[in-house]
Amino acid sequence: MHIFLLFALLVAPVTAVPGCHGDRDKDHRRQENCTAAGFTGIPAELEPATKVLLFPRNLFSSLSWSSFQIFTEIYEIDLTGNKVPELTPSSAPILPSLSVLRLGSNRLTSLPDGSFSACPALTELYLEGNAVVSLSDNTFSGLSKLEVRPSASKGGCMLKDVEGSLLGS
Ligand SMILES: *[C@@H]1O[C@H](CO)[C@@H](O)[C@H](O)[C@H]1NC(C)=O
């Protein structure tokens, strides 16, 4: 009986948020995968030590930087395929540890000055599949670590492609 109980505890999921499952990313970071679960915002019960939050194909209609603040070691946020129409510039680095932000296939139409000032440590930014018609000289200001990679890299188009398609159209 005791052995069974111990086993049951060991295999129990880390969190029990319906629609999400906790696991690890390829570099062993603690991850919550809430793919296509109908969320409009972050469920309250997620473990604050989570570093990778995956919400592709959900129903987020805004990106509130501060709503991710409880995840103090946040490394990656995936909001691919949501309904985010705009980004709010921030005067402070709200998410200083955020390195990867995926916002492809949302409803972004413009990216004003300092759109990403909340997360100055970004190294990867995905914006493909948005109808971005206006970009300013300072849209990406302060993002000194952003790596511009060829579009052939894993995951598809990156910053370079956004700029390229804007200039080309
Ligand atoms: C997240 O979960 C979905 C299924 O719910 C799966 O298809 C997808 O590959 C997972 N993503 C990652 C990065 O583990």
From TrEMBL:
Keywords: Leucine-rich repeat, Repeat, Signal
Highest taxon in the source lineage: Eukaryota
KW Iron (keyword) present: no
Transmembrane segments: none
Signal sequence bounds: 1-16
Alphabetical list of Pfam families matching this protein: LRR_8
InterPro entries: Dev_Immune_Receptor (IPR050328), Leu-rich_rpt (IPR001611), Leu-rich_rpt_typical-subtyp (IPR003591), LRR_dom_sf (IPR032675)
UniProt KW Signal keyword: yes
Gene3D superfamilies listed in its UniProt record: Ribonuclease Inhibitor (3.80.10.10)
Cellular component, GO annotation: extracellular matrix; extracellular space
PANTHER family tied to this protein: FISH-LIPS, ISOFORM E, SLIT RELATED LEUCINE-RICH REPEAT NEURONAL PROTEIN
Protein name: Platelet glycoprotein Ib alpha chain-like
Naturally occurring in which organism (per UniProt): Notothenia coriiceps (black rockcod)
